Fold each of these.
Amino acid sequence: MDYRREIDGLRALAVLPVILFHAGFEAFGGGFVGVDIFFVISGYLITTIILAELEQGKFSIVNFYERRARRILPALFLVMLICIPFAWFWLLPSDMKDFSQSLVAVSGFASNILFWRESGYFGTAAELKPLLHTWSLAVEEQYYVIFPLFLMLFWKLGKRWMLVTLGLVFVASLVLAQWAAYAKPTAAFYLLPTRGWELLIGAFAAFYLSQANRKAFGKGLSEFGGWLGVALIIYAIFAYSNTTPFPGFYTLVPTLGTVLIILFATQQTTVGKFVGNKAFVGIGLISYSAYLWHQPLFAFAKHSSLTKPSSLVYGVLAVLAIVIAYFTWKYVEAPFRDKSKLTRKQVFSLSLIFSFTFVSVGLLGYLNSGNLWRFDDGVVKYFELKNDSDIYVWDLKKRLRKSSFNSEKIKILVIGDSNSGDLINVLNFVNLDEYLSISSLTIYAGCGNLYLNRSKFSHFIAADSLKDCAGVDDLLDDENKDLIRQADKVIFASSWSDWEVDLLEESYQNLISDYGDKFWFFGNKHLDFSPIDFIRLNGGASFPSSVLLSTDKAKINAKLRDLLGDRFVDPYLSFCEDEVCRLLSDSGDLLLYDGFHLSREGTIYFSSKLNNFIRLLKNER
């Protein structure tokens, strides 16, 4: 196919916003759409090559995968290789275990599935994953397992039938993406069925431009169409944010913008000259390597510091990613694409060797729980405790969510986030099953544990939490209101924030008005201590026996006490004195395993300290 400068320029419009978005520059809130631009470009270029070879009767699936291996694997394997020693030095066992899993998943082009199962794309946990960005490569490679085979099989039926079939797949994928962007946002973001339509948009452009008898566009139409495409991309980059439902209909804006540039921008148009200028083309040529390098640089910068890197640091790292990308392109990408320097056999052999190596290293790290002989037994035991406790906090709460009450027992409804999970575990430990019947509703931290219409407080919810908060239990739903009505006692337990407390008086009055005076509120119990940060600084897990409480959370508890009086339970009174809080049990085990959630040992300790409160629940009805 003929070289098109504007396509390389488009790559620059794709990679720069992605890098700046991940660097945290707020102006580029929609910079993640650069990945969608890449999808369309890829769909266009690959389809153009395949169609040309099918027309000439020389398409080979082996040649196709050889080209993909030369294009994708050398730079990818280099980045993975460089990441390993940095991960070994800087990642704590839990993060190293996750990284080890990602080495295996990336080697099999399944990292999108792994990251879908682990977390969303926009959360803090995701930002710490050095290979997070490889999800898009996995989507593309999964697509290219199916797409060339489809074209080969349907070629003899003619382009019309091919286009009809692809059109049906396109519509199904887009409709599924629109539904899943709201119903299953994490799956929608990461998985091929909801992303395939983006690659197909590029494929349709290739089908159109491959027509030998198509009419050329007029100068005026080409200029208008090309600049409209640029405008759509720029709009998405600066107007979208991580709260924009993706990849549904909103994704049509940057993807159609990309297609318009592909269709209309040529070097005979001003838009083609703009997109194809030397600076954009230069960055476009190294865009793949720049994309590969930026995420590990940002992630390891976060891991190497207890505080979030500054904008200056991110800016320097972004420039560094471009610089390293140039050398990677020149000395790794370009040589491996040169068939005179490496034969097909050598390419496939090296691919298998490196894949096997990364899978082996990944399995070793995973099976060693990410430790790899780097930390003492105390650290290993701590992360075993953390992994167990992360499950323990939520396990019973999830099983009791919206469970029916036993009418012969005292009916207790516990509403809130993971802190309510702690409280449920305490109630369960004291073995009051003969007295209590417990049910639960879930309101995640920061989502507003309030008996109010959500429109009154949605503007307080952090932007990166809005999607998760959309899936919590709404206390004004009839089913949930019925549970509140049935309960003898209702306990709200959360990691309370200032804005929630400010709205709590109205919420409390609404509850009393609708259901009577049967409500209790369980306060914050955060410590000014992070075991993980302590391990980072000290290299071991010899934790202090006591630490300071969180003054910010203690002030919120004081406001709750003033508002609620004897209906408020302050956990700090159970394990703190003069702002100094007990961290370890008599046997030396952590009571709050992460600084704010109870371990099993902490559950035992708190159950003995909340006797008066538990007695009230047991005796009052």
Amino acid sequence: MIVLGLSGLPNAQDHLRRTNPGIDKLDERICQGLDSAAALVVDGRLVAAASEERFTGDKGTGALPVHAIDYVLREAGVTADQVDLIAHGFDYERHRRAFELTGAPFDEVYASATVVDGLTTAGWERVAERFRPVRHHVAHAESALAPSGFDSALVVVSDGMGETESLTVYRAQGGQLESLHTQSIATSLGILYGIATRFLGFQFNSDEYKVMGLAPYGDPERFRPLFEKLARFDADRGAVVIDWPSGALAEAEQGYPHARAFLAEAAFTPAVPDGSIQQNEADFAASLQERLTTLLVDLVSYWMERTGETKLCLAGGTFLNCKSNQSIAELPGVDGMFVQPASGDDGSALGAAYHVARTEGGGLAPVTGPFDPYLGPQYGEDDVRAALEARPDLTWRYVGQGDEYFADAAADIAADKIIAWFSGRMEFGPRALGNRSILARPDGEKIKDRINGAVKFREAFRPFAPAVLDAEVDRLFVTRNFEPDRYMLCTAKVRPEARHTVDGIVHEDDSARIQTVRPDLAPGFHRLLTEVRERTGAGVTVNTSFNVKGQPLIMDPATAIDTFAGIALDRLYIEGFVVEGKTK
């Protein structure tokens, strides 16, 4: 059985822009159905997945993922006609009447026909009879449950909104999801964090990670009373309660102006972001982050006690917040935890495919190892050589992927150079996990400033993550070694005695968002870090995504080479080629 999973609502953002001429760039993601992606499950096993943005360069696009679909089919060696079922990570049809009564553009934006018609226009046949809409939160839940390997677990989904929900708690047993608790979008933690992000001058539903990065520079005590009054946990019902003033969530497409006005009156008028750290904004971010973490910890604790479950599966954009994930992982009752690396809406494509494969496609293959996030395209020597030959202004050499290649890259890192590393299949999800990465020595000279300023062109307060050999983790960090550590989804405290070794990746709160590298998932990257350890004494590097501000994670050789040529990297290591830089 072959199941194609899709995410995205292809008309949603176009409708938003057309009906809101002159919309602020910061508000262009206040709509459903962004981050479109495709995933393919064959005989119960996930074989490929990719986000559409990686092919088009339009970051976060919700367009019909025609390029991603083409890729996953080619990767599996199947045609469109051979796909048995098409799973979509939204099911608005159940709410058609309610949406139509509100005057919402249902047929244009939310209807399943927008995807069915799009595929038909793209040349697909028999789409409607193969099409299976999946409830959005069910898709998120399956995206974490299916690859976790847990027979029994508490599954929590939290995001901005599904069709009408913003938070759902499930109990999973034997692969079946039992819904225990759900909340509407009026009490959405994702929307709360998004409005606060927009209040601080960052893009809604995009830049929340910047607020998380800013938070450790602030004092949470200053605005704690505001957030404690605004959002609380109801221990009688096991529910998050958010007490927005009446009308605060109106005019969402205009950037929630009423909610932002409420926050300004209760707190301050924020400055326009300029990349620096402003104390008001940092204190506000710290209070927001503290409240989110407290609420999630209370929620998970309540439902773990209520169900007796000790294993957790988490998905939805809220759980890309690695600081909150750390606090959840540290709960004493948790003895296993899996967070879907693509917890945003791109991951709902694979969750929808998993769900339909489980319920209609003969079941899922047994989980025999860790979830493999390297699901995207890969390129060979001929692809890279052709891209390099199109750039006669660059100096390069081919050495192959043998001992010399890994030794040279490790020597560059040891010598405090900043390199790009392009290898194998592209990662699925927002984190670069060593196949499309920028790497550097974590104790390098002003390494954070050098990468932020001359390479990534981003805010100076943004932290960097370390990739660390599994054998080195406990020596350098304090962590429970749960699965999220593999995927850069959890922060960990840096051991005081190890700080000098990793000074460039230690955040203001003495934490770091680690990626534990083991040979089973990333043998090449593990080999490189082993070479680094031989030269520096520590198998750890800075690991940040190979892209620049506003650019999706790089997918292909041509984009990698062009990007390398435009930024201050010392070398690019790409499938056995070493690119030195521009000719003299």
Amino acid sequence: MAQQRNEPHKISSDPPGFVQRSKELGRLVSALNTAESNRPAVVLMEGTTGAGKTTLLGEVADVARARGFQVADAVTSNLDRFMSFSVVRQLFESLTAGPEAGAVKSIIGVGPGAADQSGAGAQNAAGFDELAPHQTYHELYRLVSGLADRGPVCFIVDDLQWADVSSLQWLNYLMRRATKLPLAVLLSCTTGVYPADPLQIAEMQIYATRVRIGGFTAEELSRFAELTLSRQPEPEAVKACHTATGGNPLVLRYLLAPTREPSSPPGADVLETPDSYGLEELGESVLAQLHRESEHLVRLARTIAVVEPAELALAAGVAGMTLPEAADGVRRLARMGLMADADKPAFTHSVFKDAITNSITRAARDDLHARTAASLHASGARAALIARHVQCTASKLGRWAADALYQAADALLNDGDATTAASFLIRALQEDVPAEFRTRLLVKLGHAESFFDPYQAATHLKQALETIEEPELLLDVTSLLSRALYLDGRYEDARGALSESIARMCASAPEFSAQLRLALRVTLPTEQFEEHDAVPDRVAVDWRRGDARGRGLAALVAEDLSNRGEDLTTSREAALVALSAGAVSIMQDPQRMMAAINSLIRTNELELALRYSSEAILEAHRQKQDLVFVLGHALRSRVHFHCGALAQSVVDARLALAKAQRMNLHHRHPAHVWSMDALLSALLHLGDVEAARELIEPIGLTSPLPDSWHHTSLLQGRGQLRMRLGDDAGALRDHLECGRRLKSWGAPGPAVLPWRSYAAIAHLHLGHSLEAVQLALEELELAKKWASAPSLARAMLTVGMATGGAAALPWLMEAEHVLRNAQTLLLRATILVELGTTRWHHGQQKLAREELAQAKAAAERCGSLPLLTKLAALPPEAVGRSDALPAVPVSADSPLTPQEHRVASLVAAGDSNDEVARKLSVSRRAVEFHLTHIYRKLGIQRRTQLAAMFYSTGSRR
């Protein structure tokens, strides 16, 4: 018996039955049932360390295999987050029966050296070639679809919180796409541990059935102890055990293991434990046992805990042991219940690994990671494997370590994890490397930081520029630096950086100098634009190449031509070249992406603009690129606005503005301003003037705005608001200042901002008919040069309104004809209202009714209350209102408009929203918008309050 007691106690890896977890196991098995009926199912188990998640996953995996599922599993660790597609590799590597295990190598690269193929050597000098992660996700999805054709599939991922960003993104992609596959995805996540990507985990929770696993209750613990000990424990022992462990199954098994001997009283050891026996005490107990066994065993266990080796040979080498010695040690650890498999160096649970790791000094852990990195480098392992150990040590290892970090960072950056990539590059800069390579590291670091910290990005890029002589690299780095400075609101610094590099390259590389001049003109407007007018022929050739550099240049060309109002065909072509590989391919440069999509809007390619802006939003959400997310929503808001979907335009603009505020962007940041501008335009055309006034309040109605492209656009929007508020003179000043800026910057084209049209209307309101006609005709000439249907139609509309009378009809008829087949519904509705109204007042009543009917339908689709109000002011027979109501007198002190007063009186009389809409010949949505404004102005919340107010004031109709 004494000999038996000296042997290490085994921690049972197979608990006595699943009595306490039968409900949770049933939830997992139900996912298999769903998958067998050709429907996907996702289950996410959440619980604390040691709650039994791993055991449950192992059990359900056995059930799935017995049912004929193709089971693929993966177990993560805290080092996996540093290696792209780590979980995906594990899943497909476990599918050895089919061709998928080999096919995945060609998609993400699984063999040794795979990361090197996409590393610095294969890139250009600055490493700016972008990958398309969505293509990788799609190809992996096709592999899963192929698996599903052969039978149901079960994917199991344990400890999801440590999964790498790329794998999490793919799992989310799979959950969205696999709507009809026989697929069960079973996941576990440890609560209280900050995941590698909280946003991706949160998105998975949307698709998954969540199963929470807690500790055993006292009753469950009693049953568990009875099954473990084969006898009934004493109630006092159960109570003490529950108090000490909190019902944690893993700790319970460890504490109850010694009491399984007949000579030990039930729960005796537990009663002698402290009042609270947690995981820290468990780790100390394990280490004490290891010390009693052997110092070699302690060294091996510590090596495995810190290094987390995939192969036993690596653990043996780092621990300074022979392979047979290490294999014997693992078997002994397995007999103790600490290792899951006698042939694999992996702990049964992270609690043991963490406890052992915490017992090692920082210097010792540092040395273990350094030796591991060196061993992996010597064996030709992947850069990502080497880098994650180099990252964990402060020891200087040399150029090879910096190379591995650079290559791993490059892959992470292409996969959308800029933050981790930057941390790798900062670590690489701590190595002693040649000056040329140090410059490359600084450039790549600045590129990564530009997505989340433009100030630091500018600092590192400036350091890199000091040593760069090669013209092509100078071009790339200067472009990056100017972008970082611009996004940080440092416009003069950005202009200075571009001008300095232009001067440096003027003679040695005129074609690159011309590209920087183009970037300067498009990004940072200046009144000295004439000196940069000439664009060499080389630029016109370069942007058609279609590679990464050519796509970025094409975006500049597209924006420049549309700014100038020249050559719509070439501007459209350049925008399409810029986006030829999708919005994802140009997202690395948010300014260029926005320039390309904005050029599509200006050239009336609204369907394409909607597609690419939506693609950018989706990918930005997956890659956590918040800036691109904001710009994408601002762009899509603009597209919806032109298409007449005003409510959707407001939604996108509010999403963009909310994200910009959560990012703490300065109110002068381009993304913040563009979001405000998009929201302002949509609100005004919806008729929500009060909300528009509140939006613009922080910058004021009269304050001067900075000289930048985005602030000038906002200046025009503010001018429209001032006109709606009755300040025609102030509106005119804003529009004329907008025009002065654009003309001085060499951007007279109407596609940029139709400021002349808005200024002409302000002139008309002020009685300046001659000035209005002059501006309208000037815009018409420029619109003919640009030849875009919306620009032409708007200019003709303005000429007609400025001309007035019967002479306006030909212009309005031509405007309607030009825009008849265009997608710009809001502008078409505006033209139809003016045309129908003019016809009605000049005796063409039959045609007027037809056009006003179309105008009403279009205005209702758009939800434009200003247009609907204009229609409501016409005689009833003009717009087909047979039961129109007489005008309702409105008192001078009433806060309501005449139309709002009419809606309020009908609602107060008891009419439903539908009845009001029918009587006023407007849409139900229009009535709801009116009621929102009425309630806000009157300070009420319910229809009964409105009725009481009308009865008390005698305002009933």
Amino acid sequence: MKNIAYAGSFERLWLSEAEAENKLYNKLFCITFLLCNPAASIGFYLAGDPLFLTIIYTHCISGSLIAVLLLLHYKKVITGQQMSFLAQLMMIGFYAYLLAQPHRSYAQSCLNLTLGVIFTGLILRWPVRYALVSSLLSMILYPSAIYFFGEPSAFKMFFTEGGVFLLLAQFLFPFVMKVSVGKDKREFYYRYNLQEQNIELEKQKTIAENATKAKSDFLSMMSHEIRTPLNGIVGIVHIMMDEDQNQKNRNELLTTLKFSSDHLMAVVNDVLDFSKINSDHIQLDEFAFDPGLLFENLRKTFVPRAGEKKLDLIFDIDERLPSHIISDSVRLNQIITNLIHNAVKFTETGYVMFTVREVARDEKTVRLHFTVKDSGIGIPAEEQPTIFESFTQVRPQEEQENKGTGLGLAISKELLRLFKSDIHLESEPEKGSVFSFEIQFPYLEEKVAAKPAVREKIVTAIAYPQAKVLIADDNKINVTLATMLLKRKNILFEVAQNGKEAYELFLQGGFNLILMDLRMPVMDGFESTALIRKIDQRIPIIALTASALESEKDRVHASGFTGYLAKPFIPEDFYAYIFPFLGVQTAKVS
């Protein structure tokens, strides 16, 4: 169907092109016969042919009719091709009439008509059907007019004095026209295709340029965002190593170090989250939770930052909310956190207000309207359509202190798509911004054992079994971190530098858990795990890797690993993950 549409479009373009290119020649054809037909009768006059008067009168009438056709074409009643074709048909009729008149000789008439056919073939580009109609009509009318209306000897005289050449020229005329039109059409087809290819190349060039610019912007943004916290981390570590610090200074440096590492972690998580959402690797994990508790935890999270900037942090929550709603509280929390974080970041004085209102409810679902409003710098109208694009911020050059990954709003918009919702913005420069969205949730009014909306933190281990852990990793920093965390809990361990060493140590026995890096020299974690699984199907083997891609996780689960822990990780996450495999009983608080 697409090819048919393309062919139809090309044919229309070709007809339009042919009409435009041959407009002048169609006019020239009509004007030539308008002037040359009467002039051709002079030859009959000089030869003393009595047919002269009939010819001149006939050509005057035909010339008048050609003038009418020229006027109709000028008025755009008929096209140029239609004009020349109608003029030709009309003149065939007049020529047939003249050939039926008494002739002394047909030589001059046949010569004139043959030259006319040649001239028509050279100057015009008709559709083949026009040429075919013209030739058939000429080949039928000319001999018929002479045979039925001329003198008895005229028919034979016509053929002996040039009629054969005239009819042959008429017979060849459609073939000549087909070849000429075909040549022109092929040339146009090549030009048309070349133009189409040029347009497509221009599009691809634009796409490539935009992609290059996006890549450059991304690298520039990521360079700033990653190098800034790294600078803090590297600098503070060197200061702590080079100088004797009192406890107060050391604590300040550690606080800054933690802030820089948390910021770096947030950058990496933003990029990974955005990549996962765009790859459709994120699905909502729905469970019942208390919305009031979620919003209160959110408020407590932003109180310190708002207090630092002396902003009024207002949480206006509808008191009619259901006791529990069913949805993904983690992703909902992420959306709201991004919006409030941006509001606080871009507001220097005034307030940040988070509002939740119930707008509709039936027996099973409730629709909530969320609003984050601030009195910050606002967003110019021309920049509003782009702020939800990845790696885009408002006036990044002017607000250097407020720079970030530029992914928060893009992630929020994509997450809202999973909630079958969209985000709306109202803003004016220097007057603040209002971000809003609505989501429809299933709800429950009875009390349920809700899944915690925030991560639980391990406080202490109540009982330690005689556990021993095998650590397989070639990176000294990763080994140091893992061993220090195990030493804190008095858990025994052995270290292997590669997968082969890990397998050999495993054969010695006595291990309750294996922490296996995936990328190692000599033998990687996948090969080592495959060998271990041939001997022991039950020992827990946890994959440790810096990759957080879904494809990597799928390969890990398919390769015999028990679990998967992505680097970097914080101590609480590390303990929470390995303790169940070691049989450690833990006490937890939210």
